[in-house]
Every structure is written in structure tokens, then in C-alpha cells.
Design a protein that fits this description.
The complex is a heterodimer of chains A (183) and B (186). With 183 residues, chain A is mainly α. Chain A starts with a helix and ends in a 9-residue tail after the last strand. About 5% of the residues of chain A have low confidence. With 186 residues, chain B is mainly alpha-helical. Chain B is built from 9 helices and no strands. The radius of gyration of chain B is 22 Å and the shape is elongated. The relative contact order of chain B is 0.09. Classes of the chains: A mainly alpha (183), B mainly alpha (186). The interface between A and B is large, with 47 and 55 residues.
Chain lengths: 183, 186
Amino acid sequence: MTPHDSMRINLAAARYLEALENGDDAALEALWRDAATDDNLLQAFREIHEGVIEQDLEHEAMQVRSAVADAVTKHMPGAEIVRPVAGPITVADVAKELFRFPPGNLPAEAHQMIERLRSIAEPLPEKLGLPALIAWAEPRYGSAPEKLWDAFRQVAIKLKARANDAEYQLAARRTKPRPEASP
Amino acid sequence: MPPNVSRPMAEPQADPLRAALGDPITESQLRNQALAYFSRRLGRTIHSCREEANDAVQETIKRALTLNAYDPELGSVGGWLHGIMANVCLEQVRNLAKRPKQPASDPAAWENLAARTGPDRDPTELTRYLGWLSRENRELVEWHLEELSHIEIAQKLGISPGASRTRLSRALMELKRIVNDKEGVR
């Protein structure tokens, strides 16, 4: 296919999409006549179909996600909509998760550390083994009980796994009632 | 060195129509055509058009076999089948509640755009027109003018070649409107 052919086909494909969207059956008929003897044009029209379907399915999926999120927000006020974090997982992402779902029996200084870490936008280290994590975190943010770093590590692994999931995840999970929400 | 084994030649396919109809890809391509057409003409979602699309595929196959009039001299069997599908879709839409038709586009407007973007284009004039496009559409049209393939565009944008084709088509539709508005062509 020459460059000139490629430009001609791009223009014909645009005409085809326009005719398809405007319901211009006469133009569609003429374009299909051309495609009968032009394999490149035929392929371009097939790609237009694929593109249109892909775009519509994405739009439909987005509407469904939005409707589910709206319904969850409206009918389950104590629920959280879980979405994968965009970009690298940060210390703050993990700390926020720990703040929302604190493990039991953490000493007071661990809660103070969680509070501090909630504002740290630094990405997590590559190695998340407990000794490596402690060796990485304590020089930066100060010492804390090992129990906290262990909980931090578990949440970090969970968030990383969630982010690695290519598909958008939408899940509703009950949270513990917050003190301010109590009557 | 492996022995020189003579492999039997593949049997020439006697009936290209039956060969095409026996290929699941053909059916899928025909269904895509019907889905794209019905969703646009009926103003419905892709999911809600599946039943009509399946009916249209069956009707197209039935007609193709009944007509049995495919002539390789007149083009590819795929093109012939898509032509039958176009007629089947049109007939089905006539029997269903349809969306009001939009004004048909003028082929002269497309020919004018082809001249403005073709090999003899005026770069200054074209740059001026491109300036009216959105940033995303301008980038797509520039790639089209640089003769990038859709596989290359798709890779740059992290999308499928089909999505690249559709996005470029929309960008060219916008450029056509701009060029013809400025020049007073419909």
C-alpha cells in the first residue's frame, strides 16, 4: 500500500464512519461497492466496526460502574468503593488504609506513626520483606513497634496486588462504624 | 540435515464462498458490521443490538447461499458478503423504530478535504486549518499526514488499531467541517 493509498483509505474510512453515524444509506452503499474490490478499504471498514463497538462497550461499562458506585454510595453509607490506586503505591496510600482499617492491639505510638505516614507521598520500596522494610522506613520516618511495620507490610502487599490487577476493580466492603457517625 | 520431504500441496478451495462462511472470523466480522450499524441507526447500546445482529448474520448467510452468485471477477468474497449484510441491515432497520436520519454528507466536501490534505496541499493553509482542531485531533491528523500506520498510532496511544482508526476518522470529520465551513462548501 502506497502512502497515497493509506491517506485515501483513511479518508474513506472517515466517510464511512460519518455515513454510519448519520444513517446515510446511499453513502454506505457506495462505499461498500468500493470495498468489494479493495481489500485495504474492506479491512479499514472492519476496523471501524471494531473501534465503534469497543468505544460503545467502554461507554456502557463506564455507565454500569458509575451506576453501581452511585447505588453503593446511596444505599450503603458505611461502604467503601475500592479502586486501584493510580500510579505507584505510596506510603500515604498504605497509611490511609491502616487508618481506615486499623489492626487490633496496636500501641498508641503506632497510631501516631500511622497519622504521620498519611502525609508521606513517597513510593514504597521494591523489597517488602519485614527486615528490609524496617531498614528502609525507620531511618526515614523514625522507629515504631515491629507490629506496625508488619501490618504496614501486609497492607502494602495487598495494595500492590490490587494495583497489578489490570481490570478495574469495584468492590463494596463494610467498614466499622466511625465514632462520629454514631448517634 | 533433515531429509527432503515433499509435502502434499494444499487442496485448492473449490468454493470460496463456502470457505469464507466456514471461517468463524467471517461471521464475527459480519456481526461487527451489524452491531455498529444497528447501534447507530437505532440509537441503542451494543448489548441491546445483539439479537438483531445475530438475525442479520443468519439472514446474510442464508441469502449468500441462496443467491450463490459470488463472482471472483467482481471482488473479494468478504466484500460481497459485507455488501449483502449492508442490505440486510437496511431492511431490518426499516422494520424497526428508527432514529431520525441526519442530513446526508456531500461527497464534494470530502473531495475538498482530500485536495487540501493530499500530495499537492498548501502547507500554510493546512497548518491554519489544523490550528482549529482540538489538540488530540490535531495530533492524529498530523500522524495521518506523516503516513503513520494505525498500528503505530495505536502503539503511541496505547489503544487498539480499531480505536485508532475510529479516532482518526472523527478527527478527519472535524477537519472536513472546519475546512468546508471556512471555504463555504457544505
